């Protein structure tokens, strides 16, 4: 049976999943057999091994006992619960890595997939200065972001439609020189045939169709799932009715946003303002 090999370096959830699979296979157990021994479903174990879902505390403890791992799975769960990635994001990232189309809306910050390294570094180091992160955690998030961005350079890269609220461009993350580099990168990305970039102008006011960041992923089986998040955790939405409402709101947002041509003109005007500041 063919299976998709998981990169343990791609996320903390992936590392735990790979470890569980290796420990199970070293005991010559199938997922169903392990499930019978620890009283969890094979499908649940499969999701954990694929890095889609973290294990419960009881599953980690029971797996350690049955597989005689010396407490490794529970220790990795402890690390996962203190992960640099908010809960829910690793699962989203796993689906993102397979998506054939990605639609994004962001407020206040350029979406991670479209960030240049100095911009991403400035954003992460601000969290370090504020005491909300450590240098090591910031470095891990930057490495993970780079791995996600790499797919946009693949021959089979997904199509990307991104609507950025105008505040994403006006907020000077990293200072004027970093913003100039970031805005030039957005212009270059918009020139790719697989990328559509639009700006939602400030004058939409209260009529902007979306008031929270959103990602919509089209999966290989043509299903669409949605993702949004709070400061504490991310939420992956599979319910067709809910996702359908999100898609409708996104479609309205694209209609209300500037065209790509007008959006690029807006980006260039903002870039010129930053260039004037460094002269």
Structural class: alpha/beta
Low-confidence stretches: none
Rg computed from alpha carbons, rounded to a whole number of angstroms: 21 Å
Largest beta-sheet characterization: 6 strands, mixed
The fraction of residues in strands falls at: 5-15%
User: What is the helix/strand order?
Assistant: HHHHHHEHHEHHEEEEHH
What kind of oligomer do you see?
single chain
The helix fraction, in percent, is: 40-55%
Based on CA inertia axes, which overall geometry fits? elongated
Euclidean distance between termini CA atoms:
62 Å
Mean pLDDT: 91
Ordered list of secondary-structure elements with their pairings:
Blueprint: H1 12-26, H2 31-38, H3 42-49, H4 57-67, H5 72-81, H6 89-96, E1 101-106, H7 117-129, H8 135-149, E2 159-165, H9 167-170, H10 176-190, E3 195-200, E4 214-218, E5 224-229, E6 234-237, H11 240-256, H12 260-278
Parallel strand pairs: 1-2, 2-3
Antiparallel strand pairs: 1-4, 4-5, 5-6
How would you describe the overall organization of this protein?
Helix 1 runs antiparallel to helix 5, helix 2 (31-38) packs across helix 3 (42-49) and helix 10 packs antiparallel against helix 12 (260-278). This protein has helices at 12-26, 31-38, 42-49, 57-67, 72-81, 89-96, 117-129, 135-149, 167-170, 176-190, 240-256, 260-278, and strands spanning 101-106, 159-165, 195-200, 214-218, 224-229, 234-237. It contains 12 helices and 6 strands. It has a 6-stranded mixed beta sheet, sandwiched between helices. It is an alpha/beta fold and 279 residues long. The mean pLDDT is 91.
């Amino acid at each position: 049976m063919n299976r998709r090999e998981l990169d343990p370096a791609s996320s903390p959830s992936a590392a735990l999943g790979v470890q569980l699979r290796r420990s199970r296979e070293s005991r010559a157990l199938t997922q169903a057999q392990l499930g019978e021994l620890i009283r969890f479903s094979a499908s649940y174990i499969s999701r954990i091994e694929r890095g889609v879902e973290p294990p419960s505390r009881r599953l980690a403890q029971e797996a350690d006992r049955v597989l005689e791992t010396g407490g490794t799975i529970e220790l990795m769960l402890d690390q996962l619960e203190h992960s640099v990635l908010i809960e829910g994001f690793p699962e989203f990232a796993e689906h993102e890595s397979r998506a054939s189309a990605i639609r994004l809306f962001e407020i206040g910050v350029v979406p991670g997939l479209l960030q240049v390294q100095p911009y991403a570094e400035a954003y992460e180091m601000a969290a370090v200065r504020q005491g909300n992160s450590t240098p090591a955690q910031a470095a891990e998030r930057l490495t993970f972001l780079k791995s996600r961005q790499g797919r946009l350079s693949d021959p089979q890269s997904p199509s990307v439609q991104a609507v950025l609220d105008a505040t994403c461009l006006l907020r000077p993350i990293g200072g004027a020189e970093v913003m100039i580099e970031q805005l030039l990168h957005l212009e270059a990305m918009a020139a790719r045939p697989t990328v559509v970039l639009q700006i939602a102008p400030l004058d939409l006011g209260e009529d902007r169709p979306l008031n929270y960041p959103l990602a919509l992923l089209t999966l290989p089986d043509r299903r669409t799932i949605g993702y949004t998040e709070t400061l504490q955790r991310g939420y992956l939405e599979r319910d067709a009715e809910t996702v359908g409402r999100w898609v409708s709101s996104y479609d309205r947002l694209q209609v209300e946003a500037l065209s790509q041509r007008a959006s690029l003109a807006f980006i260039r005007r903002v870039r010129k303002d930053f260039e004037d500041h460094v002269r």
